[in-house]
């Protein structure tokens, strides 16, 4: 009997020894993230949230994590899809309760070059402030941060990743916000056909080049043959935005249904003003404007050409065009749109570093 017991224990010891998998020690890793700027000016990265490989990866996981929503069905990426330049091509996104949002989703790329707050009305001071707002918004994810933290804390995968990113497995809203900020800052679009043209790698078609000249040439009613579309007044290269909030003539004073920047500042001069968005990847992000009222770029160009409405906060440069319009004919409009199509960055759209990590 003793021999049988010894034999069993011996075999058990041998089995355990053969199947004893090494325990992987999860450690903090502060390896810097290699932020790519291309030919852009120096990015305004936060000094108190230095990008690291593991924090960016944690932010990427959270960006695609459906457990941030009440019914575990919706992630940030649900309304900011990479194939759509991290935008939503529905006019107003639908939240977990089936409720519709009130503004068109904004694209998430080149955030490192935004220095004037975030969201259409700028109510989020920093990107980290914006990062958590959709979670608790009843029209979006409609969840509490407390519940999200509880769900993530029950998952060893997240505890391990928070350890790699922050040094221990504590999960809280501040760390979530910092990680999401890092991932969104890492999303950079800088390799469109236009960029390749500037580097001498490709040529533009005759129509695209003519559209480019129209885009960057100022409106001049005194010399109609030399007048341009004056787009760069608000959408300056290389980011194709201007870090301002502007009233672009969508509505007259009595038609304001959304007061825009005014809702964040309560300044009368901000009525009807909205954050100027980038035109990079614009062909991929219909519908257009804060309320998605235009379905095509043709409609957008027609608006600026002849349909601007006057109000007290209308941008002065746009007001100056209202007597004659931009003087664009059908060929001008076609060429202008063909140029805007060159701002599509397929390298960015297909970059696996920004894709779902799960």
Summary, kept brief:
A two-stranded antiparallel ribbon has the order 1-2.
| CATH architecture grouping of the largest domain | Orthogonal Bundle
Using the alpha-carbon principal axes, give the shape: globular
Structure classification: mainly alpha
Low-confidence stretches: 5-17
Q: How far is the first residue's CA from the last residue's CA? A: 53 Å
What is the fold-level CATH name, i.e. the topology of the largest domain? Cytochrome Bc1 Complex, Chain D, domain 2
What is the β-strand count?
2
CATH superfamily of the largest domain: Cytochrome c-like domain
Order of helices and strands: HHHHHHHHHEHEHHHH
**Mean pLDDT over the full residue set:** 94
What is the top-level CATH class of the largest domain?
Mainly Alpha
Radius of gyration: 25 Å
**Assembly state of the chains shown:** single chain
* Relative helix content: 25-40%
β-strand percent reads: under 5%
Q: Sheet bearing the most strands, described?
A: 2 strands, antiparallel
Q: Number of helical runs?
A: 14
Main sheet: strand order:
1-2
């Amino acid at each position: 009997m003793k021999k049988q017991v010894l034999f069993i224990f011996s075999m058990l010891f041998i089995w355990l020894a053969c199947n004893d998998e090494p325990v992987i020690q999860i450690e903090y890793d502060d390896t810097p993230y290699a932020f790519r700027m291309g030919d852009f000016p120096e990015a305004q990265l936060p000094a108190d949230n230095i990008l690291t490989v593991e924090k960016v990866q944690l932010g990427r996981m959270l960006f695609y994590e459906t457990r941030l929503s009440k019914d575990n069905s919706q992630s940030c990426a649900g309304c900011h899809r990479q194939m759509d330049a991290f935008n939503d091509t529905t006019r107003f996104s639908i939240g977990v309760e089936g409720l519709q949002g009130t503004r068109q989703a904004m694209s998430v790329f080149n955030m490192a070059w935004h220095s004037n707050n975030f969201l259409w009305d700028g109510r989020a001071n920093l990107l980290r402030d914006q990062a958590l707002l959709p979670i608790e918004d009843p029209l979006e994810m409609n969840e509490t941060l407390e519940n999200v933290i509880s769900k993530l804390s029950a998952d060893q995968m997240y505890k391990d990743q928070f350890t790699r990113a922050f040094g221990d497995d504590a999960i809280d809203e501040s760390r979530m916000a910092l990680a999401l900020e890092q991932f969104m800052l890492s999303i950079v679009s800088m390799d469109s056909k236009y960029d390749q043209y500037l580097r001498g790698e490709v040529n533009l078609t005759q129509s695209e080049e003519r559209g480019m000249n129209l885009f960057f040439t100022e409106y001049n009613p005194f010399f109609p043959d030399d007048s341009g579309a004056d787009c760069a007044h608000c959408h300056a290269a290389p980011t194709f935005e201007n870090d301002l909030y502007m009233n672009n003539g969508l509505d007259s004073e009595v038609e304001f249904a959304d007061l825009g920047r005014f809702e964040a500042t309560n300044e009368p001069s901000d009525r009807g003003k909205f954050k100027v968005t980038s035109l990079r990847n614009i062909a991929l992000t219909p519908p257009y404007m804060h309320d998605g009222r235009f379905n095509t770029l043709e409609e957008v160009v027609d608006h600026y050409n002849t349909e601007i409405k006057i109000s007290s906060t209308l941008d002065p440069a746009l007001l100056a065009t209202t007597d004659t319009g931009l003087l664009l004919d059908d060929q001008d409009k076609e060429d202008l749109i063909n140029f805007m199509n060159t701002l599509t960055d397929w390298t960015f759209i297909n970059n696996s570093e920004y894709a779902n990590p799960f």
